[in-house]
Amino acid sequence: AIFLAFIALIPTLIQLAFNLPSSVAMMFGGTSLIIMVGVDLETVNQLETELGEHKISKDYRPKKRKTNKI
After folding, report:
1. pTM higher than 0.70 for the full model?
2. Which of 3, 32, 36, 70 is 20–30 Å from 62 (CA)?
3. For the chain, which ranges sit under pLDDT 70?
4. What is the domain extent for residue 37?
5. Number of domains in the chain
6. Within a domain: residue 9?
7. Is 64 part of a structural domain of the chain?
């Protein structure tokens, strides 16, 4: 909850830190930032899952047996 509150305050903090007009600072409002962060986190989770599945399937693939040809 503290993290979400911090994200929601980012536009206001940017406005105060850089002395910007409120219209510029609020271009990315708190709600839109929370949505973007949520989408980013979900994308990272999906990528990690996909890479993990690829590694597991690669590790458990049947190994080719070497046969001695006579």
Report:
1. no
2. 70
3. 56-70
4. 2-56
5. 1
6. yes
7. no
